[in-house]
Amino acid sequence: MRGRVLSALLAFWLCYLGTVTRCGGCNMSSPAVAVQIDPAAINARLAEDEADFQTLVAWARIVVPSFKLWPHTEKILRAIAPAIRGVPLRTWLCVPPRFGKTECALILASYLVCHFPVAVGYAAYGDDLANDASERCQAMVARAGYELTRGRRRKDAWGVVGGGKWYSGGIGSGWHGKGLDVLIPDDLIKGSEDSRSGDIRDKVWRRFLRDLDSRRDRKDASAIIGIGTRWHADDPGGRVIAGRFGEVFDVVVLPAANANGEALCPEILPVSELELIKARDPAGYWALYMQDPRPDGIAIFNLQPAPTFERSAWKHDGQRLGIFCDPAATAKTSSDLSAIGVCGMSGFGETATMDVVEAVHARLDPAALAKALIETWRRWGRCLNVYVEAIGTGAFLPELIRQMAPEMSRFVVPLKSTTIVKLTSDKYARAQPVAQAFNTGRVRFCAAAWFAGAVAELYAFTGLDDPHDDFVDMLAHAWNTLYRASMPAVRGVRNVSNIAWG
Predict the structure, then answer these.
(1) pTM higher than the cut 0.70
(2) Which CATH number fits domain 308-498: 1.10.10.10, 3.40.50.1010, 3.90.1150.10, 3.30.420.240?
(3) Domain covering 19-28+37-289, topology
(4) d(CA 238, CA 296)
(5) Which residues contact 25 (CB under 8 A, 6 or more apart)?
(6) Cβ atoms within 10 A of the Cβ of 88, count?
(7) Distance CA 312, CA 326 (A)
(8) What digits encode the pLDDT tens for the residues 335-368?
(9) In whole angstroms, how large is the CA radius of gyration of the chain?
């Protein structure tokens, strides 16, 4: 009976610290090992942890005048406070942006370098972020009344008189020659784009293991306090959770909303704002705010059924119109699909809507594709611009069209960049704006254009080596080209694609 009570007490204590998961170096399917629990030892540990926490809170109020002890910052500080008494922590904090995770780590770092002869290493994805953290930590030291050592007041390396040392830099900076007692890796992945690259994730992980972890002195006594908003299932936090570091970590996961839909901290991020984020960017919502990045391959077009209209009922009503084409992957074969769309956009910014009035989605050799574009252009009054993706193997098409229809030459626009997304960015990135509009019902399809092949491709699109993505690329080109954040100023000359057709 006593064992059950003590086990329950220990479980309650861990829950109080937050959502803490023991990860790495363990086999979850292994049978439980009997452990002798000493009530006196547990009570002593609880008392020490509480004293460390109260010390850190008192220090926070000194070095950060605006400090607020929210419930989530209490959980963060309780998780890292034992480092005050030299506990060799292995802790990773998965916390949404704007929730003070870096500030809490700097509060701890400033306390350590002011009171102990320890070396703290702070690493981020780049030198700028690391320098910013260094300046913030120096300001904390100054507010506490401590003095920096002379000659050591650089941003990337400085010390406290009678205390410890601070080293900081980007993960790619030179860390050789620096022995560290406490390592604070903070946001080692720069952002969504970098997180989607397996090469970049591998490079960051290698640098973390070889350049940073190798700097820890007395690894059995040093601490690692990792901080990061989750970007990807395979980001550094994900690899730590999966046990790839080889040591057991306490992983503190703080989603922006709990299972009941209640906000973690309504004063910072209320439920209404979270719902808006989720509607605009579901993948970003789950990764950045819920700390639960969904596996790569999740479809980004998910509104069903898609809004459609009858061609006979469509009116241009001053829409910005254009003809858009995503050619097959090669000019030599007809094995890949090509897509053509006549698209019109109304409105600006978040009120913008787009109609796909006509669409072709078929296997066409280069000559047949050029002919289809010429016929479409002539049918629409010979006045619309024809935007053709002309990077890589698609560069051949504009010249082919000009040869077959010289009168069309000035209307052929090789599409190499757009107003809001670079064409050279990956397919996933450039499809995000039109996907967000589609999911909120702001992209409509003429019933005749909404056929099985396009439907299947749209709903299957992930942006990750999809077998077919031409229809999605065409939609992305159309949206990104026609989109305007606001009404343009009146000009003397207008592009024909911005003139109401008819």
Answers:
(1) no
(2) 3.30.420.240
(3) Rossmann fold (3.40.50)
(4) 13
(5) 243, 245, 246, 247, 248
(6) 17
(7) 26
(8) 578 999 999 999 999 899 999 999 998 888 889 9
(9) 29
